[in-house]
Amino acid sequence: MQALQTNTIICPQCGGENKLKPDEKFIECEFCGSAVYVDKSRVVNHYVVNSNFNQDQAVGNVKRWMAGNFHVKDLDKNAVISKVDFYYFPLWYFKLNESGTDKIMLQPASSTPISEIKSINIPAGNLVPFQVKNFDVSQFVQPDVYFESAKNWLQQSGANIENITESNLVHIPFYHVHYSFKAQHYSCLVEASSGKVYANLWPVKSEAPYRILFAVSLFVFFLTTIISYVLSVVVSESDGQIFIFAEMIKIPAYLIASIPLVGAAYLIAKKV
Ligand SMILES: [Zn+2]
Question: What is the DSSP letter of 5?
Fold first, then answer.
């Protein structure tokens, strides 16, 4: 990789000198045909990951994800999908060698509301050299985070940038699914090569019923303790026995008191 001088770029693959046309960002080397991306300071290999899911399949994955246990009950039935966008999103792809093992780290190369996409796993075999003729370039989000900024982020997140052995720009296909639920707007991303759903925010189960149940439980156990002591005072023949009897009554009393509380927790979990 070479620093960019005037309007000539050096192909990272074959070392060939290519003349850069104004405003041209996605370039194919005229000597070896490699796809390269020209950053302010760097020329890197440019890869793309192919999409394996159509829009209906992607929405199907979102519905299954919505039906999962972390989300509010019947979200899959009550959420209204308002818009689905398809685009290839740019990520800086760093390969680091840390004590003999390769590690891939990703940084978004454009701003995204869904930071989760940093944790995407891209099998190396899925990286295809980008070729303009195979894609609709209007679906490609242009990077606006420079290579150096991405490297700084990487360093701040604890990586030793001395260990970087390879840097690429990778465009990954996504369906951005927008939906509303109870007059609130949400969105999530479906990574279109694996079908995996990513989101930062979604309608969660309300915690209020659990908090109320917790308060009720504290009160019930407090009451059970008092009743155990009162009963113990009644049945004890000497003062020394009161504490022992109370503890003996408390254990079965707690067990009995917990039955309706567990039942209530189960009902809340089913309803909310
Ligand atoms: Zn080349």
Answer: B
What 3-state DSSP class applies to 50?
Answer: coil
Q: What is the pLDDT of residues 183-205, one digit of tens each?
A: 889 999 999 999 999 988 888 76
- CA 168 to ligand 1 center in whole angstroms: 15
Half-sphere exposure of 152 (CA within 13 A, CB side): 5
Whole-angstrom distance, CA of residue 147 vs CA of residue 152? 9
- DSSP state for residue 59 in the 8-state scheme: H
pTM of the predicted model, to two decimals? 0.70
Percent over 90 (pLDDT), the chain: 32
What SS3 string covers 108-148?
A: ECCCCCCHHHHHCCCCHHHEEECCHHHCCHHHECCCCCCHH
CA of 44 to the centre of ligand 1 (A): 11
pLDDT digits (tens, 9 = 90+) for 46-60: 999 999 999 999 999
Q: Which residues contact 115 (CB under 8 A, 6 or more apart)?
A: 108, 200
Measure the CA–CA gap between 118 and 132, rounded to whole angstroms.
Answer: 25
Q: How is the chain split into domains, by residue range?
A: 41-198, 208-271
Picking from 68, 84, 79, 83, the residue whose alpha carbon sits closest to that of residue 180 is: 79
Q: Measured between alpha carbons, how far is 24 from 18 in angstroms, rounded to an integer? A: 12
The rounded Å distance from CA 228 to ligand 1 centre is 84
**Largest Cα–Cα separation, the chain:** 103
How far, in Å, is the centroid of ligand 1 from the Cα of 51?
26
CB within 8 A of 254, min separation 6: which ones?
221, 224
